[in-house]
Amino acid sequence: MRSLLLRLAKQEIKTMMTRYDRHLQTSPWKGLPELCNENGSYCADSCPTQAWSASTMLDVLYDMQS
Questions:
Q1: Of the candidates 55, 57, 52, which has an alpha carbon nearest to the alpha carbon of residue 22?
Q2: Which residues contact 65 (CB under 8 A, 6 or more apart)?
Q3: Contact residues for 2 (Cβ-Cβ < 8 A; gap 6+)
Q4: Count of C-beta atoms within a 10 Å radius of residue 23
C-alpha cells in the first residue's frame, strides 16, 4: 500500500512540475515568479522571477531521486 501511495504521489508531483517546466520555457525571464494567484494565474504584484522559487523546484527534483 505504501509503495502504491508513493508512486501516486510522485506521479502527481511530476504533473505539477510539468506546468513549471512549461512556464520556464516560455518566460522571458527563464525563471519562476515569486507569487501567483489561484490556479497559478498571473499575479501583477509578483516579481517575475525569484531564486527561491527555482531552488524549491530543485529541492523537489532532488527529493524525487531518493
A1: 57
A2: none
A3: none
A4: 16
